Amino acid sequence: MANIITPTNANSYAIDSSLKQVAVRSIKSGEVDKIQLEDEIGLAIRAYDPCLSCATHTLSGRPSYNIVIYDSKGELIDKID
């Protein structure tokens, strides 16, 4: 039996908090700065989590990576493939 606590689990609150700050900086009045958003998402994740660091490299044109942006009412604002 083993109790493994991965960096993803241990840092999930901090990662979520950082990603919220990234969203606030990158999304203003319904307009999305896609380049800033993509760059800062990768930076935020890599700062905390060695497990997800490789996963953030899928930003470069891989179809498996999507960023979906909703407003506070749950309405779709934009999607970055």
Counted beta strands? 4
**Integer count of domains:** 1
| Low-confidence sequence ranges | none
Report the end-to-end length measured between terminal Cα atoms. Answer: 40 Å
Helix content: 40-55%
How large is the radius of gyration? 14 Å
Counting DSSP H or I runs of 4 or more residues, the number of helices is 4
Backbone shape: elongated
Beta-strand residue fraction: 15-25%
> What characterizes the major β-sheet?
2 strands, antiparallel
Strand order, sheet with most strands: 1-2
- Going by helix content, strand content and strand pairing, the class is alpha+beta
Average residue-wise pLDDT:
76
The topology string of helices and strands comes to: HHEEHHEE
Structural commentary:
- The protein has 81 residues and is α+β, with helices and mostly antiparallel strands.
- It has one domain (7-80).
- Helices cover 47% and strands 16% of the residues.
- The protein contains 4 helices and 4 strands; from the N terminus they run ααββααββ.
- It has helices at 7-10, 12-26, 34-48, 50-53, and strands at residues 27-28, 31-32, 67-70, 76-80.
- The strands form 2 sheets. Strands 1-2 form a two-stranded antiparallel sheet.
- Strand 1 (27-28) and strand 2 (31-32) form a beta hairpin.
- Helix 2 (12-26) packs antiparallel against helix 3 (34-48).
- The longest helix is centred in the N-terminal third of the chain and has 15 residues, at 12-26.
Tags for this model:
single chain, 81 residues, alpha+beta, two-stranded antiparallel sheet, 4 helices
